[in-house]
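Figure 6 in text form: structure in, sequence out.
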């Protein structure tokens, strides 16, 4: 039996700080520290807000969701406000010298099911001079994991330099203007390549004439590409820049320009771009967009055979009946399938019991379902008919046609999938959960406060 440990807050903070530092190459920011400390003290988000400069809705919603999601990634298991103490204690116990548990390396250590021929196509593409590979999929479909594997392949098997830059690491201050964003972008790539000195970007920016796009382009040519091995640059969460249209259009058109330059200039053939995103950026002239050039890979759901293979990797000797029961609830959605299998093997849970509780706040998907609920509420102001559209979809017996903008947004949020010109819930889990939410209230807004 594992002895119960008692951590104080400073010990917990050090575990979290070290894990984030190793995984994200940064420290806890102020809002993350506020949420961690307040949660450790057992405070509600409203109580945290009373002693901090942040609004309760912000702590409860966007900031809270991102923080618990980040901890889940860096600690290697699902983390929420309810269970984080237990997770941190397990992390501490796993290392007797009290050093933090390292984050899970998705590229090497996690269970993985290949989706042929996707992996081989991606590997072949990044071998092409000046390649631009685009990986598109709904949230939690395995985009980031595939990118990690491609970065690992480029480094370990091809001997390339490779960078996996997550654009969500950019802070709001980095988006003040295009010049500042491109400096952050160049600095981040430089740091991840471990190029010295680290003030090279500032020196370059001060010494060169021209606008910020030219400075960025010249920096890549002079410092990152010239007389150096091939560079594979993976940009995850490209959708992050869409929130800043004045930056997004210029940045994305710059990436398109680099890809086009590889046709006439040898130096740009050394750069291989990988863009990872949920939806294309549509507010951009087609002739300047990177989303209609290069090669696009769209990730698909697991097949029954692939789910059975993943169950076997978890030590479960499932037959087609058990696979069918799980897929009746979550389809072949990689994240949902993986969560179920991990929970069953880790906690010796019965599949039938897991599925009964799955679409409720007490089930294993409660944090994810609440995340979807929050995202709907956050988008409701821009799309006032969004909740009505979702209600129409989840209560229908067949795929429903919606206004194109609403259908696209629901698909972008990962809640629906397309069937011809119509859409239907991505899986039965989402149908059952939101049916119950709408049964309580006619609007998503009315259910939000009780769901968190």
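Output sequence:
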């Amino acid at each position: 039996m594992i002895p119960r440990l008692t951590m104080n807050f400073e010990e917990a903070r050090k575990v979290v700080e070290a894990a984030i530092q190793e995984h994200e190459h940064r420290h806890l920011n102020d809002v993350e520290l506020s949420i961690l400390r307040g949660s450790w003290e057992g405070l509600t988000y409203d109580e945290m807000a009373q002693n901090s400069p942040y609004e309760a809705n912000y702590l409860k919603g966007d900031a809270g969701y991102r923080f618990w999601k980040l901890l889940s990634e860096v600690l290697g298991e699902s983390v929420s406000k309810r269970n984080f103490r237990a997770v941190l204690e397990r992390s501490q116990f796993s290392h007797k010298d009290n050093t933090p548990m390292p984050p899970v390396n998705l590229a090497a250590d996690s269970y993985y099911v290949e989706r042929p021929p996707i992996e081989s196509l991606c590997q072949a593409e990044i071998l092409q001079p000046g390649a631009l590979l685009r990986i598109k999929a709904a949230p939690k479909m395995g985009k980031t994991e595939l990118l990690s594997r491609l970065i690992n392949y480029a480094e370990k098997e091809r001997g390339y330099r490779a960078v996996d830059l997550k654009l969500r690491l950019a802070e709001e201050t980095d988006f003040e203007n295009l010049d500042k964003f491109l400096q952050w972008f160049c600095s981040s790539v430089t740091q991840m390549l471990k190029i010295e000195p680290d003030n090279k970007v500032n020196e370059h920016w001060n010494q060169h004439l021209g606008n910020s796009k030219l400075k960025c382009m010249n920096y890549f040519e002079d410092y990152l590409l010239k007389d150096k091995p091939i560079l594979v640059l993976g940009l995850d969460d490209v959708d992050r820049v869409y929130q800043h249209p004045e930056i997004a259009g210029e940045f994305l058109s710059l990436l398109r320009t680099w890809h086009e330059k590889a046709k006439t200039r040898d130096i740009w053939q050394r750069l291989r771009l990988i863009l990872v995103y949920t939806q294309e950026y549509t507010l951009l002239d087609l002739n300047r967009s990177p989303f209609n050039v290069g090669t696009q890979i769209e990730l698909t759901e697991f097949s029954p055979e692939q789910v059975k293979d993943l169950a076997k990797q978890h030590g479960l000797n499932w037959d087609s009946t058990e696979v069918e029961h799980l897929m009746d609830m979550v389809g072949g959605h990689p994240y949902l399938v993986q969560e179920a299998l991990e929970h069953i093997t880790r906690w010796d849970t019965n599949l039938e019991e897991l599925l009964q509780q799955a679409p409720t706040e007490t089930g294993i998907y409660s944090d994810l379902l609440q995340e979807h609920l929050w995202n709907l509420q956050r988008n409701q102001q821009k799309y006032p008919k969004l909740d009505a559209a979702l209600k129409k979809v989840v209560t229908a017996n067949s795929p429903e046609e919606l206004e194109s903008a609403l259908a696209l947004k629901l698909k972008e949020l990962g809640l629906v999938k397309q069937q011809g010109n119509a859409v239907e819930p991505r899986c039965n889990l989402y149908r059952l959960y939101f049916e119950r939410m709408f049964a309580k209230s006619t609007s998503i807004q009315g259910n939000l406060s009780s769901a968190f």
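Caption detail: Confidence is low (pLDDT under 50) at residues 1-5, 95-109, 448-452.
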